[in-house]
């Protein structure tokens, strides 16, 4: 279906056995889950020596397709061929014996064990630790992964852990490697390292790689071929080289939404030229006298003795969006917890509109005027078994009750207003929260926090796991909030999100702010350096 | 004051202090080494007490027909029987492990009490076996090497447990599932099956612990024979920071404290109320637990049930 001749790729020399059948062919795969068609006659070809990118929004069917390939999901119709021969893949062990391996991103390494112990897990037969150690060292050296077999996983960074995952896979010498969103927890330099290593594996050993991603720049720079999925169908498939980013982006979303984010991320468009998102933001450039939120020298030490916050200082002025950029696990979660009154400070102070707030006392931050959209909406954002109305007023039931008695009619009425105002798609105030989609649950959380007229709105990973439409909506709401004079603190590990929304960007690394740049002076490269701790600036 | 120090010297140079301490320490060691394996895999096995008590009763019944070895075999089977209930209830049917453990402790006590009431088994203490040369070491020689011979069975058990945990694939898998069952599942391990296996092992060892204690200490079965030592063995594992070395040290420490209670009055020191002394081991346990419980790192998934597909 696609032309395989492309002289511009040198690895074509290695993988270009045009006459022999491709390593993997998925032909007309169809999978239904009840009413929903997750994959609708999807075809995909993985070739030896090629990296094949699979791009699509959430729910486009990428994951289902990969699950079919590694035997976690059985297709309703369609055929899988390996080296031209039809096969049945019934479970992951079956897939492994066919030489198909998935590099897991989460839940696959035991932190308390060493590298070699983790690699040996799941093997059978006598435990020969010398042999396993040697093999790990050998693979590590061969691919330049720099992994010591005796290191404990808990001492390794996210990037190093991922290399261990890769070693775990490579040890069984698979022909097909599947990566599912491999860079979601990595810093830019770690991602680069990963792809360099991947490139070596592909070139030297003629392995076929499937790379599932939602990051356009990644797909463009790393893959040889790309398949774009939308609503369970393949909408575009072909060579990556010579394809324009905007073209891919359009195919992925299927309509011309604002793609500032995607553009900004790989520098196609100068972010400096970005239209000003909110009129009030410009006034924020000349700071108004008193910040809405002032964080001074925050220190927190975790139970294990690790410094979670070490001298974090930050001001957020009314009407501006301050984006906290950084790689996961650098203190973002703790910062969110402090502002949700979940943890107390060891030292430092938090002021809202000039008034100090006690930390760690339940509800104190909310009372002082801080609204929080928490990182994990299921865990701490809402109660799934409560109704929409109950969730809307759970933080402050006093608004709909008198002398301790709930006024059900008032609650219902006000909930209806909020549902309309925030266009929450549900059957009514009494709909159980779990019946709502992720995007609508997030709207409920947003509505609740904004209904309290907060001075400060903290949004932690507000668009995590949402589709493009819902992301656009959330972004708009944050801008609107800032426009009405709320100080918005956006904490996100999605760099694109931070770049797109923020008036001012600060970088968090190891529990403190290591750099700051205003919207007009963003240097993506410097940002990347700061995020990885490579370029701690003046501070 | 002089009196006090001479009394202390009296107590600490008394051979029977160490001998009694060792007898108790060993019952704890049998049980704690099994418990350690279960906890490494993620189960706090409260029914240890029931396993030991069942084992002790089975040993009393078995001795009359099959001698000491027959009795110990029966004890191991009794422990295994309790373990089978605990393991399958908590790691197949996903019942709460504590509730199952507590129920078993009460249930086995009731059953044993009933059986003893209706038909008291004939059993007796086994002979002492004096190991030449080694038993001549001052103070600890007799404690370690001039004891009822069943005590010596613990000497190979402890290193065997170490080998099992740290040098075999099964041990690696056990440690993995206690730390991160999800990751282990992804790696292809059968988490709940492994957890059940560790509980079976604990049952066998705890059953033998009960049998050993009957043969080494009293010879005659009473339903108060184990008297909470299952809980103390669990405490020893926690005290030991979930290491084998530490657990053994914990067993010795708790054994020594218990031994003071017997030694002090037997030497004629009546200044301390015996009732107060009897309380001492429990007080020491509580103090030790509060001191050590927070400092050490426990298996990350300890006491958390594993259900596939649950994050």
Task: Describe what you observe in this structure.
The complex is a heterodimer of chains A (539) and B (311). Chain A has 539 residues and is an alpha/beta fold. Chain A folds into 3 domains: 181 residues, 3-Layer(aba) Sandwich (Rossmann fold); 65 residues, no CATH class; 169 residues, 3-Layer(aba) Sandwich (Rossmann fold), CATH 3.40.50.300. Chain A is 33% helix and 24% strand. In chain A, helix 10 packs across helix 19 and helix 17 runs parallel beside helix 18. The radius of gyration of chain A is 25 Å and the shape is globular. Chain B is mainly α and 311 residues long. Helix content of chain B is 71%, strand content 2%. Chain B is built from 12 helices and 2 strands; from the N terminus they run ααααβαβααααααα. Chain B has a two-stranded antiparallel sheet. The chains are: A alpha/beta (539), B mainly alpha (311). Chains A and B meet through helix 4 of A and helix 7 and helix 8 of B.
Record the SSE blueprint.
The complex is a heterodimer of chains A (539) and B (311).
Chain A: H1 12-15, E1 24-33, E2 36-46, E3 51-56, H2 62-69, E4 77-82, E5 85-87, H3 92-97, E6 100-103, H4 115-120, H5 129-142, H6 158-170, E7 176-180, H7 188-205, E8 208-213, H8 216-222, E9 225-230, E10 233-239, H9 245-253, H10 260-266, H11 281-285, E11 293-301, E12 307-316, E13 321-325, H12 332-339, E14 347-352, E15 355-357, H13 364-368, E16 370-373, H14 377-381, H15 388-393, E17 401-402, E18 405-406, H16 408-421, H17 438-451, E19 456-460, H18 468-483, E20 487-491, H19 495-501, E21 504-509, E22 512-518, H20 524-531
Parallel strand pairs in A: 3-8, 3-9, 6-7, 7-8, 13-20, 13-21, 16-19, 19-20
Antiparallel strand pairs in A: 1-2, 1-4, 4-5, 9-10, 11-12, 11-14, 14-15, 17-18, 21-22
Helix pairs in contact in A: 10-19, 17-18
Chain B: H1 2-12, H2 15-40, H3 48-91, H4 97-118, E1 128-130, H5 140-145, E2 146-148, H6 154-167, H7 169-179, H8 181-186, H9 191-218, H10 229-239, H11 244-266, H12 274-292
Antiparallel strand pairs in B: 1-2
Helix pairs in contact in B: 2-6, 2-7, 2-9, 2-10, 2-11, 3-4, 3-9, 3-10, 6-7, 7-9, 10-11, 10-12, 11-12
